[in-house]
């Protein structure tokens, strides 16, 4: 199978590139900074020689977009919007122009499209799209608009021979350096992994191995198109999520943080508190209905698996290991 991954050098792209290559597929990564033999350069907005890789491939998984791990300034929010919409638009143009278009186009999206809520979970059929919730920062609505425009760019692309799926993904958990699991684990090992702002907000997540399996499942299922939630069936409140993560690392205590403390921490990390404070209670309705079985449906099992792998990565790189009695 020939797979093209626009934006395939980020955390999720690296996970897919590694897994699909190991499975024997021919993977081409389209990136602004080509560094390996199977990389092709592009600018993320205009057609170019890179489009030849799409003509004749079997699958496109478009992951391109500016990282959300940044301060949500007006400039950065606009860059998030433009990078996602422009890349989806030009991928659609490449598919439309192909003499042998791919049979399926999986387009990365986000579970952030759903409303901030605590009372019920969002699936694809009954979930509430966000943007008008009371009592949340105004700029959260812009994050929802980014997701909506991202998906619209794919949906409106004139590609009748190519099935289209929008991947409304929760946070993908992997032990890779710099990913969300690595950042949260570092906080936990430092004793800072307590609840933030009370910790009632829900965390939706998916183990990286289940993410890859879900992508492979959706590639194979010709009867599924449109938005699909890629999230484990076990979202849980932040306070419980972090408690389980601390237990997996053997860290007994996690200091809590107030909202203003979270603001200071996010500023220091050049990130934004929406990533911590928005309640994302998302469940995989369509995957479940289609018969997909999660290897890691609950966070306890997933966290144990990820910590074990992270310890191996740390040992291989010569980094010191955390003990159960003190942080590293």
Helix content: 25-40%
Strand content: 5-15%
Low-confidence stretches: 321-328
CATH superfamily: NAD(P)-binding Rossmann-like Domain
Q: Radius of gyration, rounded?
A: 19 Å
Number of β-strand runs: 11
Sheet bearing the most strands, described?
A: 7 strands, parallel
Shape: globular
Q: What is the count of structural domains?
A: 1
Mean pLDDT: 92
Note down, in words, how this protein is organized.
The chain is an alpha/beta fold and 328 residues long. It is built from ten helices and eleven strands. Mean pLDDT is 92; it is low at 321-328.
Summarize the structure.
By secondary structure, the protein is an alpha/beta fold. It has one domain: NAD(P)-binding Rossmann-like Domain (Rossmann fold). The chain is built from 10 helices and 11 strands.
């Amino acid at each position: 199978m020939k797979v093209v991954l626009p934006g395939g050098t980020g955390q999720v792209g690296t996970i897919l590139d590694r897994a699909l290559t190991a499975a024997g597929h021919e993977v081409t990564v389209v990136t602004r900074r080509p560094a390996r033999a199977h990389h092709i350069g592009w600018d993320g907005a205009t057609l170019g020689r890179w489009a030849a890789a799409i003509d004749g491939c079997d699958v496109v998984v478009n992951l391109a977009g500016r990282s959300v791990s940044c301060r949500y300034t007006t400039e950065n929010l606009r860059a998030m919007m433009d990078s996602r919409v422009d890349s989806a638009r030009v991928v659609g143009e490449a598919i439309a122009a192909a003499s042998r278009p791919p049979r399926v186009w999986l387009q990365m999206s986000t579970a952030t499209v759903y409303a901030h809520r605590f009372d019920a979970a969002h699936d694809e059929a009954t979930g509430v799209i966000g943007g008008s919730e009371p009592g949340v920062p105004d700029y959260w609505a812009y994050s929802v608009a980014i997701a909506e425009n991202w998906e619209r760019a794919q949906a409106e692309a004139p590609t009748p021979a190519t099935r289209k799926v929008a991947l409304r993904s929760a946070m993908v958990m992997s032990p890779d350096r710099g990913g969300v699991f690595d950042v949260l684990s570092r906080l936990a090992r430092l004793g800072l992994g307590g609840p933030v702002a009370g910790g009632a907000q829900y965390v939706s997540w998916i183990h990286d191995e289940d993410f890859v399996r879900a992508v492979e499942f959706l590639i194979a299922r010709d009867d599924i198109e449109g938005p699909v939630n890629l999230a484990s069936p076990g979202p849980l409140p932040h306070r419980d999520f972090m408690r389980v993560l601390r237990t997996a690392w053997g860290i007994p205590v996690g200091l809590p943080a107030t909202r203003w403390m979270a603001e200071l921490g996010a500023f220091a990390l050049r990130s934004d508190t929406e990533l911590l404070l928005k309640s994302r209670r998302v469940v995989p309705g369509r995957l479940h209905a289609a018969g997909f079985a999660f290897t890691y449906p609950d966070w306890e099992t997933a966290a144990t698996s990820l910590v074990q792998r992270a310890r191996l990565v740390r040992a291989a790189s010569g980094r010191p290991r955390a003990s159960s009695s003190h942080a590293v």
